[in-house]
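pinning this so it doesn't scroll away 📌
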Amino acid sequence: MHKLYLSLGSNLGNRIENIQKAIELIDERMGTVYRTSTFIETEPVGFQSDNKFINAVCLIHTHFSPHRCLEEAQAIEQLMGRKNKTVDGIYQDRIIDIDLLMYDDVEICDETLILPHPRMKERGFVMTLLQEILKSETDL
């Protein structure tokens, strides 16, 4: 069983319901959702929008490989109505965004996946929510 940390964000529609639905689909399709952070509202990062994000981080236990997890995360995004992925660092509003943050202690850098996530430390909200999950693990 592997530990996978995911970052989730939504700034379109009912943002809280979108995050909750994504967590349900992750639990059904990727592995058992073991912990979920609080949900926080944040400003968009990397682009201008009037729509604020709701963000969360979750920890799942999975049997899937990192690349299979990426495929499943992208399939969930499409299932929920996300049409466009970020290309060349150009961001836009989105109903759901699911990023793989860390997978065990694995480091990957190939054309489809970089782990740990290369920009997670630049996003304070991600690190705050990730620390919340990590702290809850040590409190067991």
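📌 and the second one:
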Amino acid sequence: MKFPNRETLTRWFLTRNTPVFVQIAKYGASGAIGAAILVGTVLALSLSLFPALDSSLIDGEPVSDALRQRNLIINNIIAFPLANLVVYLLNAWLVFTPGRHSRGKEFAIFTLITALSHFTGILAGPFLIERFGITTIVAQLSLVTTSTLVNFLCRKFIVFAR
């Protein structure tokens, strides 16, 4: 198979009518940007306003598991709206074809689906920390991974036209 030339790659990047592997790559890139915003915001909040990192990762007072669990939930709730908006805009611009619903309804369904998967993951984080003793970072990465898979399928078949 011949590698696509620069013009083809540019066209694929700027249009939604692309081979499925390109759509998945653009979805992955959009998700990576959203995940970076989400995780970066959670990390910044975890280091400042609402401490949620394992005591081994920070200097100073140890943070109890109960406080880590509560603060991780708070930090994710704060980080969610910004990450959701950025991913919606990228998905509508680069990945999927809008038009199945009005823009407002499309964004509402997009947000509902994203929120359901995200907040399910948020609730799972404290459970994983308490039950299995995993670190905050592993709990956060688990949330991002499961949310990505669920969201792609729902966005492709429920939210957007194609």
